[in-house]
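Might I ask for a little of your time on a matter of protein folding? Here, with my thanks, is the record as I have it:
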Amino acid sequence: MMLAFDPIHAVALAAVAAVATAGLIWLLKPMLQRYALARPNARSSHTIPTPQGGGIAVVIAIAAVIAVFAWQGVPAFREPWVLSVLTGLGALAVAGVIDDIKPLPVLPRLALQLGVASLLVMTLPIEKRLLAMIPAELENVLLVLALVWFINLTNFMDGIDGMTVAEVVPIGVTLAVLGLFGFVPVLTGLLPVVLALTGAMIGFAPFNRHVAKLFLGDVGSLPIGALTGWLLIVLAGAGHVHAALILPLYYVADATITLFRRWQRGERLSEAHRSHFYQHAVQRGFSAPAVTGRVLVLNTGLGVLALISIVTRQPVVAHLCVVLASAATLAVLWEFEKGRPA
């Protein structure tokens, strides 16, 4: 069975993933309501008890799509990455379920993430080196650490209604366009994964829109962060480092700057907090939809810049796209930091 997609089939697969996710959520929600209720506390952004763990439906839908294409014998799905991705998603989801019910200690959680990230990096479906000027072993270590950071920052940033949807869907759509029209051949082979991720997040979106009736939980944010980060590494490894940096720039900037500030203040970095830029925005007058709306618009723009950086095939243009993306991201962070004028 050869992998051949046109826009209609691509939309159809994403729609199937969306419907499957929504259906699973409808079936699982009573159980989540009973066993995985997130109650408000001093660090919460919600004010009423809300079930969490909706990400389990997202992960199941994605895993099912990957398993079906592997079972059908699609060439790209005969590679070692298939088992690694399924194993990694499953391990992080199980750990997330446990963490959603009773928080896990930091060290075991970090050890699992390092193991999953190592497995994913070792089975990347690319041969090209990202950092040819350093030894391959060191490059792999840096990629593992970067992926672990991306897993965690996705978890950190999933703090208000609709935020992770506003981040992941634009990235997924951009990667789907790159693969669908052949701009990045390796993504053409991974289209079912990209479409499943994008469609599943769209299926989750109605339950997570403000005021959210359901949260992703760690069972969702950890595997979604791992898969999204892995796809971005694939993009970078295909020779499109600029685009791979541009696409997640808002999440990376907000989380990294916040972590640095907390470190400067001597705060305990593993402790939950409400000091991200998007959280400051809500505390300083913005509504949650206003914040996620701005993030969605920004990420859509970042997707366009990422596409331009690849399609034009001009290094100068790619550099300019990174500069414009950085400026746009900093402008949004600055607006969030100031808050809405009284």
Q: What stands out?
A: The mean pLDDT is 92.
